[in-house]
Amino acid sequence: MSSVTIIVAYLMKKHQMSLENALSLVRSKRPQVAPNEGFMSQLENFEKSMQVEQERKLMQPVQN
């Protein structure tokens, strides 16, 4: 896995950023960043799994 992919995934998870926003932030600091197609696919899947996780949390009943 490339270091760029790890950094983008970290930003997405830790700061609840979208793939697009995380990649834009990394590119603002290092413009030549260009994850290959395979890594982008993994990041897209990661983003989808985070969305599902967030939806599950919203659907859980509030516990007193």
UniProtKB/TrEMBL annotation:
Pfam families attached to this UniProt entry: DSPc
Stored CDD domains: DSP (cd14498)
Transit peptide as UniProt keyword: no
Record key words, sorted: Hydrolase, Protein phosphatase
InterPro entries, sorted: Dual-sp_phosphatase_cat-dom, Prot-tyrosine_phosphatase-like
Start and end residues of each Dual specificity phosphatase catalytic domain: 3-48
EC number: 3.1.3.48
Example GO molecular function: protein tyrosine phosphatase activity
Family that this chain belongs to: Belongs to the protein-tyrosine phosphatase family. Non-receptor class dual specificity subfamily.
Protein name in the entry: protein-tyrosine-phosphatase
Organism: Oryza sativa subsp. japonica
